[in-house]
């Protein structure tokens, strides 16, 4: 078995792994628009707002990353009795995989980070927050919940953003609970005093955080190792995974030779949330049985995927597996994805200003007619998504002798085409559910249909999209080809 295959198995083993995440919950707001003039009031751009989005931030983004790879996170945090706190609770409730316990503390400000974008360029971030200590009753509720849950989980994440949830006393108590159960503890640290994380399995600072905490230089491999070793011995932790931006990551543990992981070549759009991805993957993987080295290698790949997206993004299982399979050929996005991953990929494309096109079919034996349809479809959009009927769906539509090729083979062939940006397999007889979920801007079908007969046309038009009909290439049909081959009577 190849090293990549082993890592792929580790990623797939994440499914259902219960991870307890405790830390500072935040509300991340993203405001997108265009800036094509300078304000007459000051030398600053005027942002014409086009849309706004909200999502879980801080420790909540760690939880989102765990959900994206199929883990089952338990999320314990504190919010205020305010609109932002209720929005955080609503966003948590949208994820069935999250088991939440949000303690509401009266008078507390729920942290809000608002980022303003013009196209893909971030202009400004504005924060509203509190860092005050938690009330005694709030602390008691957190520790009580954690004590009852700890026996059921496989790993503990402490996501420390310095907003008051993870005090030294809470950290010490939670780490002691986890160590008593023999489960790994992964910490995303804050501040310069890491002694409060004593007993943790892995701490995941960036290069600057490591330098600040150890008061040492941390600019290259030897200095990173020296600083990490100082932290390990001085703070009583088992290992340090230092993220180094364009230089990759370095894993230094008390019982293993240092491992320097090079960054994966990629186009970096936004580094927001990459640290959350790393801590989530490290905890989930180690909790499901992977070694620290295996976990770090996979986390490095996942971080590379996230920085190629805009905003507080996540890496999905399909994307990580594709990246591991493709190695150096990885281009930043998986071209074959499930519906959940596809929605995330398409959301990121839209943030970059791309127009999304959609077409669908069985594509059993690819022929010139298919190639022409896909080329015409791509001409109407920036990114083309192809909905592919599953094997069961094809059999229902075409008969028991079809498909000739499996859905795995058909999706691989489609994904190899330059005109195709994403392939999503669906099991229904029509792509209506898929269209509803992905909300394409352009829906493309062959001209043997009329617009009123195209499945999903009315839906696409209701959200401002349009339907395009592609010219057909005469004389090409998969069914006729199969008949010539003697496959059908």
Describe the protein in words.
It is a single chain. With 489 residues, this protein is α/β, with parallel strands linked by helices. It has two domains: 3-326, Ribokinase (UDP-N-acetylmuramoyl-L-alanine:D-glutamate ligase), CATH 3.40.1190.20; 341-484, Rossmann fold, CATH 3.40.50.620. It is built from 17 helices and 18 strands. A six-stranded parallel beta sheet has the order 5-4-1-8-9-10, with helices on both faces. Strands 16-15-14-17-18 form a five-stranded parallel beta sheet. Strands 3-2-6-7 form a four-stranded mixed beta sheet. α2 crosses α8 (274-287), α6 packs across α7 (221-235) and α9 packs across α10 (317-326). The longest helix has 15 residues, at 221-235. It is globular, with a radius of gyration of 25 Å. Mean pLDDT is 89; it is low at 328-333.
What does the secondary structure layout of this molecule look like, with pairings?
Elements: H1 3-12, E1 18-23, E2 25-34, E3 48-58, H2 59-68, E4 72-80, H3 83-93, E5 99-105, E6 111-118, E7 121-128, H4 136-149, E8 155-159, H5 168-181, E9 185-188, E10 202-203, H6 207-214, H7 221-235, E11 239-243, E12 249-253, E13 256-261, H8 274-287, H9 292-306, H10 317-326, H11 339-351, E14 356-361, H12 368-379, E15 383-389, H13 391-398, H14 407-415, E16 422-426, H15 432-438, E17 442-446, H16 457-462, E18 466-470, H17 478-484
Parallel strand pairs: 1-4, 1-8, 2-6, 4-5, 8-9, 9-10, 14-15, 14-17, 15-16, 17-18
Antiparallel strand pairs: 2-3, 6-7, 11-12, 12-13
Helix pairs in contact: 1-10, 2-8, 4-5, 6-7, 8-9, 9-10
